[in-house]
Design a protein that fits this description.
By secondary structure, this protein is mostly helical. The chain contains 8 helices and 3 strands; from the N terminus they run ααααααααβββ. The chain has helices at residues 8-31, 36-43, 47-54, 62-72, 76-83, 93-101, 107-137, 140-143, and strands spanning 151-154, 157-160, 168-169.
Length: 172
């Protein structure tokens, strides 16, 4: 007889995610002042099924989450992240949550705003890294570790700089 190892932690994690998404859906439904019956009708699911999702007994598929999001007039992405279907985005989670929860914005507008926000964060992080690198380049302590460049390209022409002299143009 073959015995198998059961990943109890994985099962617990999935159950926790299901409960968390259910709690979140319930909170959103209550904030919207919508009954379980009304949301079930709007989302196109049965009343008992929605109740089971909210209690953490069922884990909804991405399609069901999208239907529930439409019924609640919230971002499907927000539900996907809560359910563990989609990774959370980087950046200020409160700002991203505020954008995703704004009922005055269409789904595409929310996505574009978040993409712009993240691109600015990425650009600023790159600039900060470049500035730090430039600062290290002027640091005398880092000059000791610098390797002298013997060959370089200037205006598309190869040049060689013998140690201790000015660069000379290659005649190749």
């Amino acid at each position: 007889m073959k015995t198998g190892v059961v990943n109890v932690d994985g099962i617990r994690e999935r159950a926790k995610k299901a409960a968390t998404i259910g709690e979140f859906i319930r909170e959103q439904r209550e904030q919207a002042q919508v009954s379980v019956r009304q949301l079930a009708r709007l989302a196109g699911v049965s009343n008992p099924y929605l109740s089971q999702i909210e209690r953490g007994l069922r884990k909804p598929s991405a399609d069901i989450l999208q239907q529930i999001a439409k019924g609640l007039a919230i971002s499907a992405e927000q539900l996907y992240v809560r359910a563990g279907i989609l990774e959370s985005r980087h950046g200020d989670p409160e700002l991203i949550a505020a954008i995703l929860a704004d009922p005055g914005l269409a789904e595409r507008q929310k996505q574009v705003l978040i993409e712009i926000y993240e691109s600015f964060r990425h650009e600023n992080a790159s600039e900060k890294t470049s500035e730090q690198t430039a600062e290290k380049g002027t640091d005398p302590a880092s000059d000791a570790a610098a390797v002298p460049a013997q060959d370089m390209v200037v205006n598309g022409k190869g040049r060689t700089a013998p140690t201790g002299t000015a660069p000379t143009e290659n005649k190749e």
